[in-house]
Amino acid sequence: MSSLTLSELKIAIVTSDIEAVRDLTSILDNALTHYSVVSQAEIKGQLDAFDFVFWNCDQSLFPLRESDLIDLLLPRIALVQNVGSHKLRWIETLGFHMVLTLPLCVDEVLVNMTCALRMHERESRLRSQREALQAKLDCRRFVILAQLDVMKTFSCSEQKAYELLRILAMDSHLEIEELCVRFLGARDKWVDTIKRRNMRRAG
């Protein structure tokens, strides 16, 4: 998303308000590559093909469901006739980046779209960082579990258990994290491998 500009966005407009669609397309006429008016029945199957979504939150024809938006991970702007504190809290909970009141103003639409894009980009970076951190934590957890198993099986220290796993990983041409995942998935096989190696060294 960070490489896209407004002129490259594929925009979905979830509304049955023809006037709102006309206003939006008029405002974005010079910047818009593609837009689509999306019906409720098409939401699940189509919105993930777009880069940006406007959603009219006032229409009963398009009831807002949390999974319809949050699962999409798209920059999104809410369209409303009026703004109240209750509605703002509701909109925030459902993950809208910005809110625009109808009728629309040219400058407000473009500024809010730019802000929504930047907010979404920041969220995407944070999400990637969290996923990378979680992956590291998962890898560390597998190493610890494998160490504990080796310590118990061979009655050795934590350091010795790690060394046995490290050597086993080197012999198997694996990273130690990958070795530990495989170790936990086929424990008896790898324990036998360690035993055979220890016997060869003892002999």
UniProtKB/TrEMBL annotation:
One of its GO terms (molecular function) is RNA binding. It holds the Pfam family ANTAR. It comes from the Bacteria. Residues 123-184 form the ANTAR domain. This is ANTAR domain-containing protein. The lineage of its organism: Bacteria, Pseudomonadati, Pseudomonadota, Gammaproteobacteria, Pseudomonadales.
